Amino acid sequence: MSKSTRWDSKENESKQLPIYRHKAKLVQAVKDSTFLVVTGETGSGKTTQLPQYLHEAGICKNGKIGITQPRRVAAITVAQRVAQEMQCTLGREVGYQVRFDDCTSQDTVVKYMTDGCLLREVLADPVLSQYSVVILDEVHERSLSTDILLGLLKKVLMDPANATKGRSFPLKVVVMSATLEADKLSAFLSNCPVFAIPGRTFPVTCTFGTAVGPKDTESTGYVKEVVKMALDVHTSEMAGDILVFLTGQSEIERACDLLYEKAETIDYRYDVQDQTVEGLLILPLYGSMPTDQQRQIFQPPPSGIRKCVVATNIAATSLTISGIKYIIDSGFVKQLNHNSRVGMDILEVVPISKSEAQQRAGRAGRTSAGKCFRIYTKEFWEKSMPEYTVPEIQRTSLTAVVLTLKCLGVHDVIRFPYLDCPEERFILGALKQLYQFDAIDRRGKVTRLGELMVEFPLHPGLTRALLKAASLGCEDLLLPVAAMLSVENIFIRPGHPEKQKEADKKHRALAAKSGGTNDFATLLSVFQLCKSSDRPSAWCKDHWIHWRALKSAFSVEIQLKDILHRLQQKRDFPVEKFDGNKSELFRRCLCTGYFTNVARRSVGKVFCTMDGNGSMVHIHPSSSLFDEEVELNWIIFHDVLVTSRVYIRTVCPIRYDWVKDLLPKLHEVDAYELSSVARQEVTDEEMIKWETREAAKRQPEVSTEDIMKKLEKRNDETAVSDARARYLQRKQQRQQNKAL
DNA sequence: GAGCACTGC
């Protein structure tokens, strides 16, 4: 086939897309208004075609067309396809930019990118002077970055003073979403026009089951039910692959084991409805699985064999498997929720939303009509499942977001135009933490340190520790640690008990090599050992270390180092001196970033946090401090894991002296007082009043009683009663100790 | 004495 005919067929293909008939009207609609909402289900062609139409219409003579995607792979693959359709080399007229991979050039006019990348660009150029059109795609997914971009663009463009500032021509914004959220988006963007494009998907019939009722919101019995249903489908439905949705790795492995076991007993002569079906291929799928094993999922099964993929939510949006005709939906998902009261992120299993259930069902109708079997009852659907998934911005810690906004000149972070407002206490919590890290001052203004911090793609605490290390000239200790802590868990723990023992032994040995009492030091040593190894991937395999994760830690470390060196070129980068040994230096730097996560020994392996909540936490058995006998009274920790207990992982022993001056800062500013700072409504009088109160409150050592008083003032009943219960418990314990 | 979904900069 010659090149031109191949392209002709591509062109015909794109002419058959539902969007093609609306080409002229769509281009006109973009020209006519500042904001435009475009809706269309998957398969309408909006992502690949609209940028081409706008390019053809000459809209990019002033500047680029930028299209955001919530995921890297989407940005890359769509750019590849569009470059092919436009017959140009990828990276020239059509390009993409994602973290660690910039495939654009001077000529690039159609630029696909991740939403996070565009947000970074806004930080450097708030009016996006390089762009003539910005298209936000997949807005219904409500990713954190997309939500922030939406608010920023609204704020910039709705204010006529901003619209022309720094720009010589107007910016157009197109917001693309699935049908459901269209009206809400239009209303948000001052009732801008909505352009609806019909989709091109096949019908999926859904049925409800009997296994999970509204009272079973926390049961895990659904694994068995899901397996039963999968076998039922396999034996009674016509040929076509099955996709099962569960919540996590261990659950998936359990389900697969059960399926193998039961599938063996099937007699294909009598048990199976469709006689062309002669076997079942069972495949697990989850994010931390090795990539080559993931690839297997996409290969079509041998003739006569039905494929059954048992997956996490990764199969809902990130990966598309062709040939799926049947969906089995457990109705649950694992979700990370921020709890502002205890200041912790907790990963929990929760019922999915109705819109998410529809999204899952839709995975069966990509190539032909399909069926979706929900194992939960209609009553569960009505009573336990919310209409929509709570957007990320209402579920996560906002510390980094608030700093970003403040650096963009948005001082009033409470009345910022959010599509859905986060709870005020989430914002106040973020402000409090930024203040504790010296990123903002008492009036809520970004400090010099805050300006440096915003440059790093890290959690603010980690950034704080890194900057401290840099000012002391020991950044080489912290850069790898920061990189290791910002990628997925690098320690592999297999399911089988024998291998588990072996992996644990290797991990313990690695910890021992770095002293055996500091998990952060272990991370540093793993990073260094692997990096200096001749065959790093083999080294990882031998030590039960996740090679893919470590590889990305290597890239992150390089990126962080680049950012740091760039900032150090500037004149006023802080420089300090320190006399002491390396281990102390290392741990002191960590303290600067983790003094919000200090805990003191209570009894045995139980520690008590010092953040005002006084929560009881346990050292996780994976920590090298778990079976350490040495006297540890004070520790800092990286994160919390709530399972059968409240566990802290990645732990490091410290001395009270190192944090004693920092600790009062934890109680110095109550979130309530910061609320006025957040709004920038403080008058001088208020400020003086506040300062006086603060001065009165400042005491050499913070006692539990003080924390109690503060909590009571907050009028947060649960917090108070929880804290009181804990306080009484501790008091009792002290008395018992005294008696002994 | 162990249970981490998924993205993204």
TrEMBL record:
<dbReference type="InterPro" id="IPR027417">
    <property type="entry name" value="P-loop_NTPase"/>
</dbReference>
<keyword id="KW-0347">Helicase</keyword>
<dbReference type="InterPro" id="IPR011709">
    <property type="entry name" value="DEAD-box_helicase_OB_fold"/>
</dbReference>
<keyword id="KW-0507">mRNA processing</keyword>
<comment type="similarity">
    <text>Belongs to the DEAD box helicase family. DEAH subfamily.</text>
</comment>
<keyword id="KW-0547">Nucleotide-binding</keyword>
<dbReference type="Pfam" id="PF04408">
    <property type="entry name" value="WHD_HA2"/>
</dbReference>
<dbReference type="InterPro" id="IPR048333">
    <property type="entry name" value="HA2_WH"/>
</dbReference>
<dbReference type="GO" id="GO:0003723">
    <property type="term" value="F:RNA binding"/>
</dbReference>
<dbReference type="GO" id="GO:0006397">
    <property type="term" value="P:mRNA processing"/>
</dbReference>
<dbReference type="InterPro" id="IPR002464">
    <property type="entry name" value="DNA/RNA_helicase_DEAH_CS"/>
</dbReference>
<dbReference type="InterPro" id="IPR001650">
    <property type="entry name" value="Helicase_C-like"/>
</dbReference>
<dbReference type="GO" id="GO:0034458">
    <property type="term" value="F:3'-5' RNA helicase activity"/>
</dbReference>
<dbReference type="InterPro" id="IPR014001">
    <property type="entry name" value="Helicase_ATP-bd"/>
</dbReference>
<keyword id="KW-0067">ATP-binding</keyword>
<dbReference type="GO" id="GO:0016787">
    <property type="term" value="F:hydrolase activity"/>
</dbReference>
<dbReference type="GO" id="GO:0005524">
    <property type="term" value="F:ATP binding"/>
</dbReference>
<dbReference type="Pfam" id="PF21010">
    <property type="entry name" value="HA2_C"/>
</dbReference>
<feature type="domain" description="Helicase ATP-binding">
    <location>
        <begin position="27"/>
        <end position="198"/>
    </location>
</feature>
<keyword id="KW-0378">Hydrolase</keyword>
<protein>
    <recommendedName>
        <fullName>RNA helicase</fullName>
        <ecNumber>3.6.4.13</ecNumber>
    </recommendedName>
</protein>
<dbReference type="InterPro" id="IPR007502">
    <property type="entry name" value="Helicase-assoc_dom"/>
</dbReference>
<dbReference type="Pfam" id="PF07717">
    <property type="entry name" value="OB_NTP_bind"/>
</dbReference>
<dbReference type="Pfam" id="PF00271">
    <property type="entry name" value="Helicase_C"/>
</dbReference>
<feature type="domain" description="Helicase C-terminal">
    <location>
        <begin position="226"/>
        <end position="409"/>
    </location>
</feature>
